[in-house]
Amino acid sequence: MASVRAKEEQAEWIAHLLDDAVHLPHTRIRFGLDPIIGLVPIVGDVAATIAGSFVLVAARQLGVPTGLLLRMAYYQSVNGLLGSVPLFGDLFSFTYKSNAKNAALLVRRVKRGEAGVCPLEAPSLSLADLGLILLLTAPVWTAVALLSYWFWSRNLTLLSILF
Fold first, then answer.
1. Which residues contact 107 (CB under 8 A, 6 or more apart)?
2. Of the candidates 111, 100, 122, 136, which has an alpha carbon nearest to the alpha carbon of residue 17?
3. Neighbour count for residue 154 (Cβ, 10 Å)
């Protein structure tokens, strides 16, 4: 079993990588791989959405209540679906930072814990836990892929908009 802090760090690392790993020198501007890989038609937005799902997996493993997990899935859905829209979606992903929001919710919830006590070890995920995560995220992955494909099939990509 992994420690709770190790799971929190995994979620924070994923969020950092996707939302604020790159710092523009001499500015306060930070962004991550999410808007960058989102520039790749169809595959990029789906990959970023799937990567963000791992924060939800860590949350479920750490016992985040279903209501909070639904809120986290909502943030991820908004980022994935709006991120699929060429140009606007990339700018949206640049500022929305759903993965950082989800990691912050996770850490805040675990620190509060049951009766103020944080467990030392994270329990293993059950099949029911994995099923719940798939139930929440797989439709979003599919919708992101279909929406991205719709834009692609109509030649509405970032390149076609700019040039």
1. 8, 11, 12
2. 100
3. 9
Domain ranges of the chain: 4-162
Nearest-Å Rg of the Cα atoms of the chain is 17
Q: Report which of 101, 104, 64 is spatially closest to residue 79, judged by C-alpha positions.
A: 101
Closest by CA to 10, choosing from 64, 57, 70, is 57
Reading the block at residue 91, the tokens are 């700018």
* CA 47, chain centre distance (Å): 10
| Distance from C-alpha of 17 to C-alpha of 31, rounded to nearest angstrom | 9
* 43-64 pLDDT per residue, tens: 999 999 999 999 999 999 888 8
The DSSP bridge partners found for residue 117 are 114
What pTM was computed for the model? 0.84
- Between the two ends of the chain, the Cα-to-Cα distance in Å is 52
CA distances to 6, 7, 162 from 15, rounded to whole Å, are: 14, 12, 29
Token pair 């929440």 in the structure block, residue: 136
Write down the residue that tokens 């908009």 correspond to.
161
